[in-house]
Write a structure and sequence with these properties.
Strand content: under 5%
Order of helices and strands: HHHEE
Strand order of the largest sheet: 1-2
Distance between the termini: 42 Å
Largest sheet: 2 strands, antiparallel
Radius of gyration: 19 Å
Helix content: 40-55%
Structural class: mainly alpha
Number of helices: 3
């Protein structure tokens, strides 16, 4: 994810950034990613930036994603999901000893 290009920089250097950078709202969220300190704040800021790129501006198309919801319990550990159904393995599951 890129901040808006520097208007004083070389046009060639800005070419890729011009295609990806999305303006003031996106810049504010990217700035927030570098300013916040907790993991949850960083995750929220990054999710906000992804929402702008994917949902609001439609400039990024996610090619792979986890589309299935998995119900989990504290008794089950080592759940590893995979976006490709036939690659998902269930033999890694284990039961919590507690």
């Amino acid at each position: 994810m890129f901040h808006s290009p520097n208007p004083d920089a070389d046009a060639e250097a800005n070419r890729y950034v011009n295609a990806i950078a999305r303006g003031a709202a996106f810049d504010a969220v990217i700035d927030r990613c570098g300013e916040v300190v907790t993991i949850s704040e960083i995750q929220t800021a990054a999710a906000d930036a992804m929402k702008i790129m994917i949902d609001d501006e439609n400039i990024v198309l996610p090619l792979v994603g986890i589309r299935r919801l998995y119900g989990l319990t504290a008794e089950v550990e080592d759940v590893v999901t995979h976006p490709v159904r036939f690659v998902r393995r269930w033999n890694t599951l284990s039961k919590n000893a507690d």
